[in-house]
Amino acid sequence: DTGVSQNPRHKITKRGQNVTFRCDPISEHNRLYWYRQTLGQGPEFLTYFQNEAQLEKSRLLSDRFSAERPKGSFSTLEIQRTEQGDSAMYLCASSLESRGRGDTQYFGPGTRLTVL
Amino acid sequence: AQKITQTQPGMFVQEKEAVTLDCTYDTSDQSYGLFWYKQPSSGEMIFLIYQGSYDEQNATEGRYSLNFQKARKSANLVISASQLGDSAMYFCAMRELNTGFQKLVFGTGTRLLVSP
Lengths: 116, 116
What we know:
The complex is a heterodimer of chains A (116) and B (116). Chain A is an all-beta fold and 116 residues long.
């Protein structure tokens, strides 16, 4: 059973550049989530998709951030005009809508972004 | 607003001993789920155990058990027979089940070090 995969694993960019991350969820999972984790903190929710519909967005998701999930499969997270404060680990998770086990979210390995 | 508090920044335990990691939570929702995740230095969040607020018995998964005390709003993780590979960050998280929101809210984590 293939888990959640994310690419790239590491990204170093210069301030002001645009970056895009990709997440491939577990194949039968219809829900997909993006979180951001900075050093010494727990992950913070960014956004959530059910199939291709983006249903929740955090206030952390400024207008420089955009996420898509075309056809309800993989998802991309784009950050435009990156700032040093965007440096963080970006985690993707997926889940299968269900009443049991609270809709457990399974995480990928993350993409570590460093903005110079 | 939902909140997770983990008051132990770090814990030490000797191999083969049991250890308890503390987690308290705050929510106004009567129906919620509590989760524990392990994050090794590689960065991936690994799901360990789930407890629903209406579950009558404490959850167990192998060497992991959850000491759920609803009245005290605590959901402590107990790891029995610690192994060197248990050294990692551990995060407690919660999702409110009646609000329709899917986001997990995480605590700040506890770093566990297992010594030989």
